[in-house]
Structure formats: C-alpha cells, structure tokens
User: Which sequence fits this backbone?
C-alpha cells in the first residue's frame, strides 16, 4: 500500500500556491477520471434515519467517494496548503476553501485581464527567438486570458502571430494571407508552416557562413601573410603550389616547395589539409573556389572578367549585375562604383526600359549644388555571358555626366563587397561574383556595361519584325526567324533579328537555370504519350469563375490543348472530354498519360477510369517537376506569353483566360525544338497553317454594325478589344463599355492603340453574339494606321464577378480549343442591348405574336380621362436542372405600380396550390402507380378577360408605323397588371368547370373529375398559376384532357413530371424521389460554402441560441438571405426543418453564434446535396393510410421558455406534410406542451382527411395520430381531466373534440419510434440518422442502384 501511495504521490500535480488555474484544470481531469467529480462539485446530503435501505446504500457509496476525493486533494497540495483545508469535513468544503483562497474572483479576473491584454497587445517576436518559443509564449498568454473569461478566438491569435513576426518572415506571412483562408486556419497548422520556413532559413544561413569562412581562408593565398598559419615566401611559390596537382590538393607540398619553406621558415614542416574545406562555388569538399574547375576553369579565366559560376541548379534571377572592366569600353557606357552615392543614377533617359515620371526628388552633390531627378526606373544591359539583366531603382537625373552605382544600395539589397589588392569585388546572396573592378589611375572603380536600349512598339510600328513579335504573343525572334526561313507557315514576311530588347519580355520571362535533363520515352505516333499538368490557382478569376487551366500536350506533334477549370476536381471530367475529342479526330487511342503526383491525378476515380480504358498512367516522383518537363515548360511558356500580352496593352487581369487560349492558339503555329521545319498544327492536321489573320492581342478593333441593327445616322463601326480567335474563323471581341463579348469577321484593327481603362463608368451584363452563321475560314480584315476614336460617353470599369462560365462545345476539325474563356450568356436589362441579339429579337416577336393571337388588345386613340400605362420588356433565360439553356423568354410586362385601386383594378387575389398539396398529389399517384404529367400554359395571363378599362402604350420596338400616337386598349390581362393573376384564375377555373372538374373546397388549387360517378376512374389536376400537374387512373383520359387544354389555350406539353416549381423529380424502381440537388448546390455557391467541410448533423446536440448576448452583430440582410434560402430547401428536406426554424427566430438582430449555426446547416447540406424524400410505390404492405406523429420539447427556448412543437404526416408511407414551430403559449408541463402540439397536428389531420374525401380516394380507417406522452393522450380522451387543463386555452381543446367525434384516432408510441422527435430538438448522430431514414429522406443516387 505504501508503494502504491508513493506512486500516486509522484504522478499527481502538487499545488504550492502558484499557478492555481493550471493546477485546477489538472485536478478536474483527475476528479473525472476517479469518478468523484460530482461529489467534489455538488457534494451530498445525509438522508437521515428515515431513509430507505437503497438510500442508505447510496449514502455510504458517496461517503467512500468523498473520502477518495479528499485523499486526492490532500495528496496534491503541500504542507502549507494542507493546513488550510485540514479541518474540512468533506471534499466539497475543502475544494471551496481552495477556490475562495486562490481562485480569482470576477473583479480580480477583470483587473488581471487588463494586464494580460496589455501584454498581448505589446507582444512581438524577437529577432533571435525561434518559432517554437514564440508560439509557446503567446499560447501561454492566450490561455491565461481565456482563464479570465476572455473569449479570444483562434482566428485573432493567428492574425496576431502573422502581424508580429520579424521582417525575415514577411514574404511567407504575405503568402499565407493571400493563399489561405485565415478564418479556418488552426494555430498548429500555422506553426508547422512557419517552422518549416525557419528550418530553411537556418540551413541557408549555416551554408552561407561556411562558404564565407572558406572564402576568407582563400583571400590571403599568395597575396600576403597567412592569418593564423605560416606565411608563403612569394607569388611564384604560390603558383607552383597551385600547379602541383594532386600532391598539393592532399595537403602535401612538392620537394621544391618544401625546400623553399625550409629556407624561409626554418626546418619545421608546415602542412594544411583541405579535405574539410568546402568550395563556395560548387559546394564540394576538398578545394577552394579559386581551385574550382567548374565551368571554364581557373587557368583559362580572363583576368579582367567577373567570374559567374554557373551550375545546373543556379538561380539566374539572383544575379542582378554583371560587368567587366574592359579597357575598350566606351566612356558613355561606363559606370562608377561610388560609396558616397545613395542611389543608382544616370543622365541618359534612352537607357531606361521603364521610367516612373511621377517620382520627383533632389540630388545634392559635394559642392552643395543640386540637380532634379525626373523619375526612377529600370535599366537593362547584357552581361558577359550574353544574358539580359536589369538594374532596379535607378534615378534619372538630366544633366548628370557620369553614371553612378551606389555601393550602399547594393549592400542594402544583400550584396557583399570586398576591396583588396587594388580590386573591388561584389558578390550576390549566393556568394557568386557579379562585379569585379580594378582600381584606375585616378583611384576610382569604373566598369563598362553593354547597355540595351529598350525598343517599344510606339517607336517601331513600321518595323515588321516587331509587329509580328507582338502579333505572336511576344514569341522570341529566333523562333520567328525559323518560321520564315523554313517556310513553316504561310503569310509571314522575312524576319530580321533586331538588336533592341523588349521590355515586356524582360519583365515577364525571367527564368531560373536549367535542370538536369531527363528524357523520358518518346512517342512514335500520335497520342502515344500525352503530357498533362494543372496550372494555378490564379489570383484573379475569369468571368466564368475559373482559377486554373489544364494543358494536354501530344508528345509526337507537340500540339497543346487548353481547358479552363474552376476547381481541381474537374480534371477527370475534362480529361474524358479531351480523350473523346482527340481520339475521334486522329483515329488513334491514347496509350500513355504522363502527369505529376497531384491529388487531382491520383484519385481513386481517376485510377479506375485509366484502368477501365486501358491507359498507362505514369506519375512522376514527388518534388521532381523536371520529370514532367514537357507540360511544366509549356505551362511556363503560356504564362510568360500571357503576362507579356496583358502588360503590353495594359489589359485587366480577368482576361487571362482569353490570353491563355490565344497563347495556345499561337504556340500551335510556332516552331518547337522537337519538330524539324514544321509546326505542331501542321504535324497534327497535315495542313500548313496560315497566319495572315493574326493581330496583336488587346488591340483596338472596330466591328461592323449590320444595317438591321442601326439607324441611318448611327456609327457603322463600334470600338472593341481583340481577345482571341474563334474556331469559325472570326475574331473574338470584347466591348468594355457594355461588357459584351462578340464574334465577328468584319473587323478593322488598329494595332498601335490600347484601350483607356480609366474612361469606363457603368456596369453591364455580358453575353455572346455570333454575327455570321457560316463565316469563311479566315477573317477578312483591313488594317489601318490610325482610326479616329468615337466620341461616345465614357463609362466606369465593370466587374464580371457574377458571370457564369459559357459552356462552349464548338470545336473545329483541327481540334483548336481556344474558345473556353468566353463570358457567360446573361440576361439583358435594357431593350437597346437585347435588340442586338437575334435570340432575344426572336423571343420578343414570339411574345407579340402570342398577344395578337389571343386578341389581347386593340389599337385605339388615347382616351381623355385615362392615362395609359407604360410597358417594359423583361428577359429570362430558362434552364433545366443541369444548368443548360432551354429557352430564351421575353415577356412584355405592364408597369402595374402606376395603376390606381378602384379605377384600374378591383380584386387581385388568386389562389395557388400549396407545396404540401403537390407532395400529396405525388404521393397519391405513386402509391396508386399512376403516371404524373405536367403542362405549361404559354402567356397564361394573356387569356384572362378584364372587367376594367385599361390602356397601355405601344411596346418599345414594335410601334405601328403611321399610328405612333395611338395606344392599346386591353381586352385581356397583361403580365404586370395587378388584376392579371385573378383574371387568369377565373378563366382557367371556368374552363375546368365546363369540362367536368370540381374544385376542392379545402384546396382551391386542386381539381378532381370522377368519370361516370366511378371512383375507379379519377383525374386530378394541381394548378399553380400557369403550371399544371396532372395524374389519374386512366392514361387515355390524361391524353384527352391534354388535347382539350391545347385546343383552348396555347400549351407546352412537358411530358412526364421531372421539374416542377424548382423541385426535381426522379422515377426509380422504389418510387418517386423529390429533391432539390441543383438548388442546394447553388445555395452553397451563393454563400461561398462549396469548399466547406461537411457536417454530419445540421445542429450540435444541446445547441442553445439566445437573443441577448454580448456577441458582435452580423449583417442582418446577409443572414436573412441565408435563412430564406434554407427555408425553401425545407420543402424537400424535413431533416432540416428544426434547425432552420431555430435560426429563423433571430432574423431581427442576428449575432455571431446565430450565423455560425446557419453555416453549420450549410455544412450539413454540403455533405447531403443529393438527398430528397422518397414516395414509395404502393403494394400489399404499403396501403393508402394517413398516419401522423406529434411531439414537443418542453421550454426549449431560453428566451421566452416556450416549447417547440413538431408533426409529420405520411400517406402510403410517404412524407407529405411536416412542421416545426414554436408554440404560441408557455406550457406549464411536458404534458401540456405535448397536448398543444397534438392539437396543432389535429388541425392538419382534419384538413388532409377532408382533402382525401373530396378527391374520393380510398382510405384504410381513421386518421391515426401517434403521441409518446400518455398524460397528453388521457387529457385528450377523458373530459374528467378537465381540472388539470382548465388553464389551457379553448382552441387547443379542438384535439379533444376530434377524438370524441371519432374523426381522429390518437395512440401512444414509444419515444424510440417517435418520428416527429427530429422536428423538435437537435439529436445525436446515431439517433438523427435513424430518424432521417425512417421519415423517408434518402440519397438520390442510392435509389438508382
């Protein structure tokens, strides 16, 4: 026992009067582990002598637990603390003494919290502090603040850490902030990222120090006494030692060298071992940098040339400068290295490749004179290896006769300078020599540079080589020369390689050095090997929402295909589309697909598809992008061209998708190293491509306006921007003023001009217009040097964020996929924009024809006592559940808000069917195995006769010539009139009554017809404005009814039920599934929750939301939008009803917790988007029985203590009606709460029962209502219980009346089978899933198996 106690003593925390909060947390965990938590916290009472035997046993058990708890407390305090609690008789008393003595009270916590907050605000990471130590320090402070009731969230801690990092972490902090969502980032995840970066910094620092140490040992060799070693005698001896070969390399000297050492330094032998010395050039052991034979070698290196050591992994971007001190260099290109100069400066403006004229400053010289710096910019030059390099931040000082390089500015950018032996050397961050200047006769350091004069397009517009350089998307001149010299394309003139440099190419195409070459297996036929890679994410989305593009390259022909995608999980679908396309075009099959190991390529679905298609999928090893070099280099080339093309014409970044597609189009017509005297396009198709139609991307273009779309004095040409080439042979043009993308072949290009983006001022929608149905193969253009700009009103820039991606399936015979960045088809707002589109013009004509066919109006002179109402065109693109465009609908609408009550209209109410009625009809049809059909009335409101006298103006675009002053008198209703719905309802109701239908009195949107008084032949029509849902026992009668409707009205027969009122229906072998999968996906996309982590339940167990909280309020408009969208989704998702009803109670003043609860529901939807309700088919085990479940919690709402009531009704096993609402009064007991809930369910049951009777359907017995509270059932059945229910309002006794009249049968059910429980409270996962399955909520895909 003693041994046991000693073990406990050694493993338990001992409190010594300090850090009580930490000790308290540990003790609470121990109490819970030892099952004494309740005894310590709540204590226990002596039941006394009159206690029962069971109570006595329970008391003894608690006494044992109390002794155990006191023993634990005594073991966990030192002797001084023990004296304070030794007199406590119970563990609860001892614990309370400790809490009062050492625990902080509310006032003390507030004072302590202020101090901790001050420390938190001033907290910063020290320069020498590690990431781990800083995270420990800040976590300790945050825990202390939380113990003082400060609810500081992790998001603020992450933000605090990123803001207080030292400067060496600035770039990684910016990268994290831009690439990650900080609201979802955990502290541990941030710590891991920063520690990985810290390890890399420390590793580089150690390598740098080691390299510097090796170089310092090298400095004195042969040029002075050794530091810390024996001196050499002379320079000659050094050279001999260097040429001694392997003996000197091993640390031994030759005999001759040894003798000279002995003669000058005595007889003592000196040896130096180089085996541990690391060369800072090649990073290998055994020699110094001067002895390094990497590259040219020490012997052959020119004396006056700076040494640029290049290896396969070198980073050429770090080499900012490279110069020589050649004596032949001109004075004009000479630069002086000056330690007294604060900034690089020159007086030659023509050297600048970019210059910011807005930056003005003063330059003061030693004689107190000064000059004005007229700007700051960049100067380009060619180094000794022929590479083009840029000097940043150079001042332009007119009148300055010498060019100065500031040593201080170089030092600030991380360069290292050494001056010794009449030589100044400058090393970059990688310890590579970039400048070497010898001391001149006047004791200055001067270097000569081969300055490159920037060749801009404005000064070279007459040079064909520069014109075609820009037309080919800044393709290098070497490849342009190959195109002409080998006649690889048609229409390209002879190209002479210029000496000037292109600024955009320098700025946008800087690359690293080459990696070691890896040559994989080459293909011997088309589609033998396909290379693929995904590039992104791009920070700016395209108008269609894409942030990635995926490329496919054929190894044999090097042809590239480009697809834009929104997310990486679309890669498999895109690959399937690409595979189908190229295999049909080439007549061959893809054999090998080579990609990297990205998650989008190694998923289970991708692997299964490759196996099923017999594809060999080669995945490169991790962290070796060089092995997928073909795709990687092609993507790099594409992005280089995109940057140049956008920058050259100052285009907005959202056009990068069009630029990528255009770059791919150009590269397919450009030479590659793999192909000899041919282009990828010719290798793929066998036909030599023509390039005569190429124009500079982003140029101003003037599109011809057809005569039909303009007036006599309107402009015949509209300014646009060229953004690509269409597969039909036309140009893709973008109008920044209207936001419109069009395709036209009649174009005049002005390649010398760019669009002024500062002159746009209005937002507009965007759509695609195809000017010609069958244009010729190549566009016919006329190029002019300059065209006068139109005098149109300038407008503001537009944002294309809300546009959808246009689904382009037009691919020409050559397989050119350059049309995948088109802006989505959108609905125009104004008539002037709609009239330019043939689809909308056709839709408007159809609307006018329908109005005239129905004899809706007549043309009359305007009345003197009435003011005619104006009309407006409204446009709508109708889509199917897949998002595909089905129809362009133009509606002529009256401006009904101008009508006056009592003069222009009277009654306006028109009934429609309830959503639960729709579900009821679907349940009836599925149970009886009837078919469901749907009809749509075209221009339904135009069929309703008017009782009032109403006049309208002639519609825009359809004014009758010669009668411009006349107006239309309406005989029938128009859309937009306040009485139009009621007039149409009277018209359809009258017709249905004429053909034998009877309107249900309990549901005015439901009609039934029993043939020849036979219940076996029934026809049911559910009416919702102009949409009709039809079912019945006879298919012949359904067909006959359709014909009757089509003879009377202009109808659209939509066939079997599939999409009704925004809800989708799918017929399966188990029955009919009603769901809203498309709507759920749109909801998640609308509120940016499509990437959220799915939740398994819609609400946390025990979730309590309150109105009066100290939390920050949230945007009420945004919150109400979320609630409104979720409530519509509840029409097919009863599993969401309680959670959505709960958050609906806080729409007036929503708080942060309420918004989090709403997001939790959307996270649950994220994992169940394809769920819906199942209407099972009828059979022997499923009859037409109406059954309901009723349940309630008790005082669940913490604000007003009201209960939540819920009910759900089933017909034939299908859920048809459900509700989850807060009860109107406060219940005094659970019995009363259940009674009120059952009363509300009884009202719904009576309505459903009446509906069944009116439809003359068979029903097995009375309506059954199941309740799990026996007291509530007794209260409903026995009036003698009135004494207990006298305070209950009279209206709730409707339940008792229905039970006594035997119209409702109320029965008891166990709580485990109470299906309405899911509508009254948040449940645990197992219970929730069980009830969800029981009420008929199923996965749509599961019903198809």
Assistant:
């Amino acid at each position: 026992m003693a041994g046991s106690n000693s073990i406990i003593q050694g493993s338990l925390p001992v409190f010594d009067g300090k850090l009580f909060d930490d000790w308290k947390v540990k003790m609470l965990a121990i109490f819970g582990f030892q099952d004494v938590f309740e005894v310590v916290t709540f204590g226990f009472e002596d039941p006394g002598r009159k206690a029962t035997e069971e109570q006595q046993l329970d008391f003894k058990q608690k006494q044992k637990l109390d002794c155990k708890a006191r023993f634990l407390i005594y073991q966990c305090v030192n002797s001084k603390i023990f004296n304070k609690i030794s007199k406590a008789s119970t563990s609860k008393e001892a614990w309370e003494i400790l809490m009062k003595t050492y625990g902080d009270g509310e006032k003390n916590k507030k004072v302590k919290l202020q101090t901790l907050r001050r420390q938190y605000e001033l907290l910063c990471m020290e320069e020498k502090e590690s990431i781990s130590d800083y995270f420990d320090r800040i976590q300790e402070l945050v825990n202390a603040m939380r113990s003082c009731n400060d609810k500081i969230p992790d998001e603020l801690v992450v933000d605090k850490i990123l803001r207080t990092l030292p400067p060496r972490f600035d770039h990684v902090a910016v990268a994290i902030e831009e690439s990650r969502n900080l609201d979802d980032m955990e502290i541990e995840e941030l710590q891991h990222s920063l520690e990985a970066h810290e390890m890399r910094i420390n590793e580089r620092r150690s390598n740098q120090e080691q390299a510097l140490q090796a170089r310092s040992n090298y400095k004195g060799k042969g040029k002075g006494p050794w530091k810390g070693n024996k001196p050499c005698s002379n320079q000659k001896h050094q050279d001999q030692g260097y040429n001694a070969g392997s003996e000197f390399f091993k640390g031994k000297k030759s005999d001759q060298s040894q003798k000279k050492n002995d003669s000058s330094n005595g007889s003592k032998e000196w040896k130096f071992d180089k085996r541990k010395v690391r060369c800072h050039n090649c990073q290998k052991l055994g020699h110094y940098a001067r002895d390094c034979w990497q590259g040219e070698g020490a012997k052959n290196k020119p004396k006056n040339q700076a040494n640029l050591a290049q290896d396969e992994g070198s980073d050429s971007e770090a080499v900012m400068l490279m110069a020589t001190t050649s004596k032949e260099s001109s004075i004009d290109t000479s630069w002086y290295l000056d330690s007294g100069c604060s900034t690089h400066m020159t007086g030659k403006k023509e050297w600048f490749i970019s210059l910011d004229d807005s930056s003005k400053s003063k330059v003061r010289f030693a004689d107190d004179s000064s000059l004005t710096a007229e700007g700051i910019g960049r100067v380009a030059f060619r180094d000794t290896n022929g590479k083009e390099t840029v000097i940043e931040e150079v001042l332009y000082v007119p009148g300055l006769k010498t060019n100065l390089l500031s040593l201080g500015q170089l030092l600030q950018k991380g360069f290292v300078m050494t001056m010794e032996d009449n030589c100044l050397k400058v090393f970059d961050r990688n310890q590579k020599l970039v400048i070497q200047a010898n001391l001149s006769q006047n004791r200055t350091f001067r270097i000569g540079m081969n300055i490159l004069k920037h060749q801009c397009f404005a000064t070279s517009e007459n040079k064909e080589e520069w014109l075609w350089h820009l037309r080919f998307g800044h393709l290098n001149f070497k490849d342009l020369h190959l195109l002409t010299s080998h006649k690889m394309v048609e229409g390209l003139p002879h190209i002479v390689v210029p000496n000037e440099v292109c600024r955009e190419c320098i700025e946008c195409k800087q690359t690293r050095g080459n990696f070691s070459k890896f040559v994989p297996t080459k293909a011997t036929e088309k589609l033998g090997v396909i290379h693929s890679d995904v590039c992104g994410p791009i920070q700016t989305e395209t108008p269609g929402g894409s942030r990635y593009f995926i490329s496919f390259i054929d190894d044999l022909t090097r042809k590239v295909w480009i697809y834009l995608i929104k997310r990486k999980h679309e890669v498999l679908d895109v690959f399937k589309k690409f595979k189908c396309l190229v295999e049909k075009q080439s007549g061959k099959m893809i054999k090998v697909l080579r990609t990297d190991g990205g998650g989008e390529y190694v998923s289970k679905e991708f692997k299964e598809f490759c196996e099923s298609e017999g594809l060999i999928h080669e995945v490169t090893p991790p962290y070796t992008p060089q092995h997928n070099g073909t795709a990687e280099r092609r993507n790099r080339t594409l992005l280089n061209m995109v940057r140049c093309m956008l920058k050259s014409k100052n285009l907005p970044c959202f056009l990068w998708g069009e630029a990528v597609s255009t770059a791919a189009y150009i590269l397919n017509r450009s030479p590659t190293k793999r192909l000899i005297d041919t282009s990828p396009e010719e290798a793929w198709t066998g036909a030599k491509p023509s390039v005569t139609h190429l124009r500079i991307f982003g140029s101003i273009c003037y599109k011809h306006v057809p005569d039909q779309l303009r007036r006599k004095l309107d402009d015949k040409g509209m300014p646009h921007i060229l953004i690509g080439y269409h597969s039909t042979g036309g140009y893709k043009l973008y109008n920044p003023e209207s936001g419109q993308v069009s395709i036209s072949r009649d174009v005049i290009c002005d390649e010398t001009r760019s669009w002024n983006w500062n002159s746009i001022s209005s937002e507009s929608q965007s759509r695609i217009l195809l000017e010609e149905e069958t244009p010729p193969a190549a566009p016919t253009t006329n190029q002019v040097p300059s065209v006068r700009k139109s005098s149109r009103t300038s407008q503001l820039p537009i944002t294309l964020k809300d546009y959808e991606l246009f689904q382009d399936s037009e691919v020409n015979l050559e397989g050119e996929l350059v049309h995948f960045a088109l802006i989505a088809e959108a609905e125009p707002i104004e008539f002037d924009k709609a009239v330019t589109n043939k689809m909308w013009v056709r839709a408007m004509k159809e609307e006018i024809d329908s109005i005239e066919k129905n004899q809706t109006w007549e043309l009359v002179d305007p009345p003197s006592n009435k003011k005619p109402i104006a009309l407006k065109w409204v446009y709508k693109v109708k889509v199917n559940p897949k998002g595909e465009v089905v129809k362009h609908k133009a509606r002529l609408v009256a401006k009904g808000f101008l009508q006056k009550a009592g003069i222009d209209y009277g009654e306006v109410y028109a009934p429609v069917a309830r959503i639960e009625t729709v579900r009821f009809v679907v349940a009836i049809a599925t149970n009886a195995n009837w078919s469901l059909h749907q009809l749509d009335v075209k221009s339904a409101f135009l069929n309703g006769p008017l009782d009032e006298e109403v006049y309208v103006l002639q519609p825009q675009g359809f004014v009758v010539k010669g009668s411009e002053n006349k107006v239309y008198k309406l005989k029938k209703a128009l859309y937009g009139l306040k009485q139009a719905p009621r007039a149409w309802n009277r018209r359809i109701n009258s017709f249905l009554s004429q053909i034998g239908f009877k309107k249900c009195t309990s549901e005015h949107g439901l009609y039934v017809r029993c043939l020849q008084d036979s219940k076996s032949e029934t026809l049911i029509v559910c009416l919702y404005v102009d949409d009709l849902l039809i079912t019945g026992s006879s298919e012949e009668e359904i067909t006959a009814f359709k014909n009757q409707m089509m003879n009377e009205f202009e109808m659209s027969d939509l066939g079997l039920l599939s999409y009704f009122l925004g809800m989708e229906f799918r017929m399966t072998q188990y029955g009919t599934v009603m769901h809203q999968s498309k709507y759920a996906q749109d909801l998640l996309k609308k509120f940016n929750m499509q990437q959220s982590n799915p939740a398994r339940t819609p609400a946390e167990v025990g979730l309590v939301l309150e109105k009066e909280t100290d939390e920050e309020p949230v945007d009420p408009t945004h919150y109400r939008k979320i609630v409104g969208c979720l409530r519509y989704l509840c029409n097919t998702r009863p599993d969401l009803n309680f959670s959505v009803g709960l958050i609906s109670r806080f729409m007036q003043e929503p708080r942060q917790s309420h918004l989090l609860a709403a997001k939790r529901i959307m996270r649950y939807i994220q994992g169940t988007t394809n769920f819906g309700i199942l209407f099972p088919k009828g059979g022997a085990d499923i009859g037409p029985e109406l059954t309901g479940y009723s349940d309630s919690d008790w005082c669940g709402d913490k604000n007003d203590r009201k209960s939540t009531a819920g009910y759900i009704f089933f017909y034939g096993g299908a859920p048809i009606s459900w509700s989850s609402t807060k009860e109107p009064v406060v219940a005094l007991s659970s019995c009363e709460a259940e009674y009120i809930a059952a009363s509300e369910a009884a009202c719904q049951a009576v309505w459903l029962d009446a509906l069944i009777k009116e439809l003359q359907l068979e029903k097995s017995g009375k309506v059954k209502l199941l309740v799990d509270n026996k007291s509530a059932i007794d209260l409903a059945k026995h009036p003698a219980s009135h004494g207990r229910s006298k305070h209950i309002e009279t209206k709730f006794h409707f339940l008792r009346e229905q039970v006594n009249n035997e119209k409702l049968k109320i029965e008891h059910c166990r709580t485990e089978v109470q299906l309405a429980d899911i509508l009254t409270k948040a449940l645990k996962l197992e219970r929730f899933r069980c009830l969800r399955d029981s009420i008929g909520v199923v996965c749509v895909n599961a019903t198809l198996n």
The longest strand covers residues 885-894. The two ends are 64 Å apart (CA to CA). The mean pLDDT is 76.
